[in-house]
């Protein structure tokens, strides 16, 4: 074939021209820079401006960072070292070395117990893993459920039997619930319902009766001097009369409602297990764990809540409050959508009240006001008060986010669930929540990150978390007065690491859950 | 749960009805610990050291009272309080004694229903300016920007001072001392004002302390002292006379060095009464005879505590000044132990 044109054409190319590289200006870094940084007059100006700022910043910060003094016992010594070395500016990172333990664990946690915190933290990663990554074996969730009790023991110390007994009583309460709700015949349940109904009705009536008397007492001690006192006096009296009139009817009403639920077993099993749990915790908890502890003592040095501090306290509050507020938030969101007016009303009032109040106000209430409200001898743990307040606060916000997810579901999903004959619990668990939660992930993570950072607000109520530690004991110690950027920079770094990890995880999770394959 | 709500309401009613009084001494003894309110940190006055033990001039008062009552200067639960939470912590009974460089004022004593048990440090508000500004007197500060901590008496004193001298200023409100120093050094304000003791402490840590001067004017009286709740006079007496014992011991020459020797008995009857070898001052307070000896055994007398925490040899470097004994021309004075 190749001879065909041998006489008519001087040269015929028989192979393809080898590919040549693109022009230098259209490839690699040069192209990227041209396209992204210098694509027009406006962008060029902006790039140069930004470059100027970055360089100026680097010139300012780099020597400060590079000259940093890591070994000194006070800020004065830092300054002297820098002056002797003839360096104009330099950071005094020695404060981080000197007060490392305080920044991380707080200044009152016993140093020989630091390993307990570290172990609790490592186990937290293990316990959180199966909840965060669905590819891990589900059996690990057993450890996750057990983890809170273990961590409580590691961090607060004391006897191992206390958390174990609590765990045991919780399991016993759940068994009672199962027993009454599904494992005993209806006839027996009718008897149980009757007994529980009578007990609860009588108990409620008695409580209300006592309450009415207390209200009368309060009204009388307020007295009638001045307009405000008169109003309060009147209000308390009205409340007292109202309570007094309704104590018996309310008792009968509630008791009868419990009795009446014996057929499907919903209300009666909830009330019975709550009653059992209450009695068990009040009367069985301390004898059992003390007895067990006297037989086989397994104890760690106990650490009071007041002695927690540093970044550990932030992590502690962040972890506990996030993990408590998500389930609470789900319940609140479902409650707000409920067709039952009482439940809906309670949820709406709660959510709107909490959202209408700044967190710092709630913390002040927890710290200062509750001390007035509680009897002087009672020592209600401060951390517990703070945990409750932060959890309630973030639960209200998470509830609104989840409500958004619920509202975004097409109505057809609810109807489809109904048409399959699923009851409310099944439909919610199997159809509604998985979809609604998926939609809500970015919002929930947003609140979790915000919540984690909000834990630093407790420094205002004189608790020594990371920021409190910096603002209080470190910046006001004789050695480290007016150390500023070094410690706050360190704090920012710690928070950034945690918050950035959370946000990366959530993005990964969204990709995992993305079932709409376009 | 319900019960505690009612109890809470009851407590409120009780407080409205006119303040409850309980025997604080019995409570402290039963608890085995003194709950003492301190600052979250003021250099030299109250600060946890590198090993987490509270140190300082105010802390020493807490330890002395604990030693007098319980015989152990370490039987103290230090409760850190901020300027905003200190008074509620005391009023609600969370703490038994507040030793938190708190200025003794009329309204705090009378209106807030507290009992100041004495003065352990006489302070006053001063000004610090950069030397290069060339200001010699606070009256030259017309139009200056002033860094000032909010929510303190210093804020009010400043307004009073400038109004009285009919000059103007522009306040730069700031939350904490460390922040104020940062702003001042960065040049956000011309003048930094707070208690003179704090100014001295903070200047000691500047990169170049000699570039800043303290102006001669002290524009306010800040008698700082520990305080207790109204309504329990026995407890107030114990706290007051523990502080007085520290002061009297310096005047009488009782120190941590010669304490053991002197408590064997001396020629001086007042020392004997103070240390419990003569008379029964201790039992009048409801304490052991050796209460003052125990208090002095923690860190010595007033002068020793001063020198150890904030005196000339420390980085704070404060001179005794007004806080010298009355015999040395100061204001520190204890009523007689008789």
Main attributes?
heterodimer, A: mainly alpha, MetI-like fold, 19 helices, 73% helix, globular, B: 338 residues, D-Maltodextrin-Binding Protein, domain 2, 2 domains, 6-stranded mixed beta sheet, 5-stranded mixed beta sheet, 13 strands, 38% helix, disordered N terminus
In short:
The complex is a heterodimer of chains A (518) and B (338). Chain A is mainly alpha-helical. Helix content of chain A is 73%, strand content 1%.
Description:
Chain A is built from 19 helices and two strands. By secondary structure, chain A is an all-alpha fold. Among the domains of chain A are: about 160-300, no CATH class; about 305-518, MetI-like fold, CATH 1.10.3720. Chain A has a two-stranded antiparallel sheet. Chain B folds into two domains: about 25-120 and about 225-325, D-Maltodextrin-Binding Protein, domain 2 (3-Layer(aba) Sandwich), CATH 3.40.190; about 125-220, Periplasmic binding protein-like II (D-Maltodextrin-Binding Protein, domain 2), CATH 3.40.190.10. Chain B has 14 helices and 13 strands. Chain B has helices at about 1-15, 25-30, 55-70, 85-90, 105-110, 155-165, 175-185, 195-205, 235-250, 260, 270-275, 280-285, 290-300, 300-310, and strands at about 35-40, 45-50, 55, 75-80, 95-105, 115, 120-125, 125-130, 145-150, 170-175, 190-195, 210-215, 220-230. In chain B, the strands form three sheets. In chain B, strands 1, 4, 5, 6, 7 and 13 form a six-stranded mixed sheet that branches. In chain B, strands 10-9-11-8-12 form a five-stranded mixed sheet. In chain B, strands 2-3 form a two-stranded antiparallel sheet. In chain B, helix 3 (about 55-70) crosses helix 9, helix 3 (about 55-70) packs antiparallel against helix 13 and helix 9 (about 235-250) packs across helix 13 (about 290-300). The N and C termini of chain B lie far apart (about 50 Å). At the A-B interface, helix 3, helix 9, helix 14 and helix 18 of A face helix 1, strand 2, strand 4 and helix 7 of B.
């Amino acid at each position: 074939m190749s001879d065909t044109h041998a006489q008519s054409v001087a040269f015929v190319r028989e192979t393809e021209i080898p590919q040549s590289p693109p022009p230098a200006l259209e490839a690699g870094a040069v192209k990227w820079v041209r396209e992204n940084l210098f694509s027009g007059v406006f962008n060029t100006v902006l790039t140069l401006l930004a470059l100027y700022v970055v360089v100026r910043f680097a010139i300012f910060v780099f020597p400060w960072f590079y000259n940093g003094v890591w070994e000194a016992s006070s800020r004065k010594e830092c300054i002297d070292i820098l002056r002797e070395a003839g360096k104009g500016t330099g950071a005094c990172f020695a404060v981080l070395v000197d007060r490392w333990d305080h920044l991380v664990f707080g200044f009152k946690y016993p140093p020989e117990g630091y390993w307990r915190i570290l172990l609790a933290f490592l186990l937290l990663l293990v316990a959180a893993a199966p909840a965060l990554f669905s590819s891990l074996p589900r059996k690990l969730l057993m450890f996750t459920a057990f983890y809170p009790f273990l961590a409580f023991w590691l961090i607060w110390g004391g006897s191992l039997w206390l958390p174990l007994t609590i765990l045991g009583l919780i399991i016993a309460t759940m068994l009672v619930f199962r027993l009454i709700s599904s494992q005993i015949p209806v006839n027996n349940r009718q008897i149980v319902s009757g007994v529980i109904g009578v007990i609860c009705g009588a108990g409620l009536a008695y409580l209300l009766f006592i309450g009415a008397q207390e209200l009368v007492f309060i009204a009388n001690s307020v007295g009638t001097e001045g307009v405000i006192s008169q109003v309060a006096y009147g209000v308390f009296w009205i409340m007292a009369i109202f309570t007094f009139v309704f104590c018996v009817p309310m008792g009968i009403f509630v008791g009868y409602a419990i009795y009446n639920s014996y057929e499907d077993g919903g209300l009666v099993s909830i009330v019975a297990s709550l009653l059992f749990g209450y009695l068990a915790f009040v009367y069985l908890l301390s004898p059992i764990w003390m007895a067990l502890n006297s037989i086989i003592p397994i104890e760690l040095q106990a650490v009071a809540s007041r002695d927690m501090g540093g970044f550990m306290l932030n992590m502690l509050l962040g972890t506990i409050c996030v993990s408590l507020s998500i389930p609470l938030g789900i319940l609140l969101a479902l409650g707000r959508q409920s067709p039952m007016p009482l439940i809906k009303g309670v949820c709406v009032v709660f959510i709107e009240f909490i959202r209408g109040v700044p967190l710092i106000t709630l913390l002040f209430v927890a710290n200062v006001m509750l001390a007035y409200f509680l009897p002087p001898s009672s020592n209600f743990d401060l951390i517990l008060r703070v945990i409750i307040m932060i959890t309630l606060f973030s639960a209200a916000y998470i509830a609104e986010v989840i409500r958004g997810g619920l509202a975004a579901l097409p109505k057809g999903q609810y109807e489809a669930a109904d048409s399959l004959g699923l009851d409310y619990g099944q439909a919610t668990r199997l159809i509604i929540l998985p979809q609604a939660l998926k939609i809500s992930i970015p919002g929930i993570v947003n609140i979790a990150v915000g919540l984690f950072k909000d834990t630093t607000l407790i420094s205002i109520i004189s608790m020594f978390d990371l920021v409190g530690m910096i603002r209080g004991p470190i910046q006001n110690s004789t050695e480290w007065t007016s150390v500023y950027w070094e410690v706050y920079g360190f704090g920012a770094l710690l928070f950034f690491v945690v918050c950035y990890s959370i946000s990366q995880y959530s993005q990964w999770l969204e990709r995992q859950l993305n079932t709409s394959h376009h | 749960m319900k019960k505690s709500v009612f109890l809470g309401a009851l407590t409120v009613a009780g407080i409205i009805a006119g303040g409850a009084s309980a025997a604080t001494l019995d409570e402290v003894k039963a608890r085995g610990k003194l709950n003492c309110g301190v600052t979250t940190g003021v250099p030299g006055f109250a600060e946890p050291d590198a090993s987490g033990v509270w140190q300082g001039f105010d802390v020493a008062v807490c330890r002395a009272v604990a030693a007098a009552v319980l015989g152990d200067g370490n039987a103290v639960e230090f409760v850190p309080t901020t300027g905003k939470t200190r008074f509620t912590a005391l009023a609600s009974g969370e703490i038994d004694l507040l030793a938190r460089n708190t200025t003794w004022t009329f309204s705090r004593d009378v209106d807030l229903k507290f009992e100041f048990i004495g003065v352990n440090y006489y302070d006053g508000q001063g000004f610090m300016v950069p030397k290069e500004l060339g200001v010699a007197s606070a009256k030259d500060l017309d139009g200056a920007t002033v860094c000032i901590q909010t929510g303190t008496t210093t804020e009010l004193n400043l307004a009073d001072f400038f109004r009285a001298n009919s000059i103007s200023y522009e306040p730069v409100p700031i939350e904490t001392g460390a922040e104020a120093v940062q702003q001042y050094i960065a040049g956000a304000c011309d003048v930094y004002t707070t208690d003179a003791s704090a100014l001295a402490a903070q200047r000691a840590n500047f990169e170049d302390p000699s570039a800043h001067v303290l102006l001669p004017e002290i524009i306010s009286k800040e008698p700082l002292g520990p305080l207790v709740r109204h309504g329990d006079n026995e407890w107030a007496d114990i706290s007051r006379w523990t502080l007085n014992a520290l002061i009297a011991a310096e005047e009488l020459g009782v120190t941590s060095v010669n304490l053991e020797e002197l408590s064997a008995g001396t020629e001086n009857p007042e020392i004997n009464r103070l240390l419990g070898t003569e008379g029964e001052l201790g039992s009048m307070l409801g304490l052991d005879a050796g209460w003052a000896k125990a208090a002095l055994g923690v860190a010595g007398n007033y002068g020793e505590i001063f020198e150890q925490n904030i005196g000339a040899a420390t980085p704070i470097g404060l001179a005794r000044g007004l806080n010298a004994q009355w015999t040395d021309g100061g204001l520190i004075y204890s009523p007689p132990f008789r």
